[in-house]
Amino acid sequence: MQISRRGILGSATAGALAFPLRRARAQKQTIRIGVLNDQSGTYRDTTGITSVNCTRQAVEEFGNQGFEVDVTYADHQNKPDIGTSIARQWFDQGVDMLIDVPASSVALAVQSVAKEKNKVYINTSAGSAALTGEQCSPNLVHWTFDTYMLAKSTGGAMVQAGGDSWFFITADYAFGQQLQKDTTNFVQQAGGKIKGAVAYPFPETTDFSALLVQAASSGAKVLGFCNAGSDVVNSVKQAHEFGVQNSMKIATLLLFINDVHSMGLDVAEGLFLTESFYWDLNDRTRAFTKRVRPKLGSAYPNMNHAGNYGGTLHYLKTVAAMGPAAAKADGRATVARMKSIPCDDDAFGKSQIREDGRNLVTSYLFEVKKPSESKYPWDYYKLVAATPAEQAFRPLSEGHCSFVKPA
Asked: Is 148-278+362-392 the same fold as 14-145+281-361?
């Protein structure tokens, strides 16, 4: 099975995004997948080319089952207007499924385009729970995590450990705002208090010193970072330089293994974080990682990357079950069929896509190891707790998704 290889696309011009014509394939249906993410900015390490290669891994493992698969990718630069422009042009040029899409502002904007064009949209890297809530779509599957799950797992654990007063430093866009809101709810439900919060412009902020001074003077026991990617790496490093960890516990409400690697264990040790995938979790995750590692250079996959693998594999299984012509003709029907088929892959094990598009996966709370505890490359996590899939996410009845029928 051939997979198209493309350079990083930073523009949204029709010429740059067009698929080549292949006369030799005229007799065989072609499913076209577009990986839309950050190739150059804040989320380049937590999505980027590694997400593309994990998508390609799924295509290779799926094999030749009567239709071809093309994979292309582009850089949305964390800008909704660029993301929607690329998505619209791709759909007009025959892309059948769009996947990845970090940055909730971009993810929510692309959601409307996928619904309008009746295409399949699998989001693996944006956190906003609104994707399956008040802004839900019958064309979407939200695969990997969301703000509710992060707030419940990481935020809830911090409160249980005595962190009953919080100060937030928040990226000022949909993801950061929703994550702060969800975590606030869990803190207050447990009897905790919010001492304050400050939002910063995203994605242009790199100096967090003034924000850290406000946090340290707040009197709060916990500093919650409602950000991700290079932002959370920079903010934790700067907090460490300021010695904030000596007076406050630090809660990284979205942290990936790639971020831990970038910080180093001497800075990241003791941090709590939640992921739905860890490469060294069990025999199946290790087997998947061993297969995909030759494509990844020095990187290891995180839950976003694994989501591209799992989401793509389940989509292709569904296409095979429906037939490629039927799948290409109706994205909404394809997503409905995806919901009816149980998911099972080496990255996440067994899961099920709920009526609102939420894929129900187990969430794992990890603590970052001390340098002395790490025995081999990327041996970074200690498992603290696991939240079963049916308990990890917001109840269906509380999401207010417009097409979900009342119980």
From this structure: yes
Token couple for 197: 């919060």
Q: What CA dihedral angle connects 32, 38, 40 and 43, to 10 degrees?
A: -150
Across 135-239, where does the E strand assignment appear? 140-142, 165-171, 193-200, 222-226
Assess contact for 362 and 386: CB atoms under 8 A: yes
pLDDT in tens, the chain (407 residues): 444 433 333 333 333 455 554 444 456 899 999 999 999 999 999 999 999 999 999 999 999 899 999 999 999 999 999 999 999 999 999 999 999 999 999 999 999 999 999 999 999 999 999 999 999 999 999 999 999 999 999 998 899 889 999 999 999 999 999 999 999 999 999 899 999 999 999 989 999 999 999 999 999 999 999 999 999 999 999 999 999 999 999 999 999 999 999 999 999 999 999 999 999 999 999 999 999 999 999 999 999 999 999 999 999 999 999 999 999 999 999 999 999 999 999 999 999 999 999 999 999 999 999 999 999 999 999 999 999 999 999 999 999 999 998 77
Preceding peptide of 324 cis, ω within 30°: no
Coil, strand or helix at 288? helix
Domain residues of the chain, as ranges? 14-145+281-361, 148-278+362-392
Of 137, 145, 120, the residue nearest 312 (C-alpha):
120
Under CATH, what is the fold of the domain 148-278+362-392?
Answer: Rossmann fold (3.40.50)
Q: List the structure tokens of 192.
A: 């905790």
CB neighbour list of residue 248: distance below 8 Å, 6 or more residues apart: 167, 215, 216, 220, 221, 222, 223
pTM of the predicted model as reported, rounded to 2 decimal places: 0.92
Identify the CATH number of the domain defined by range 14-145+281-361: 3.40.50.2300
Do residues 56 and 4 touch, judged by C-beta distance below 8 A?
no
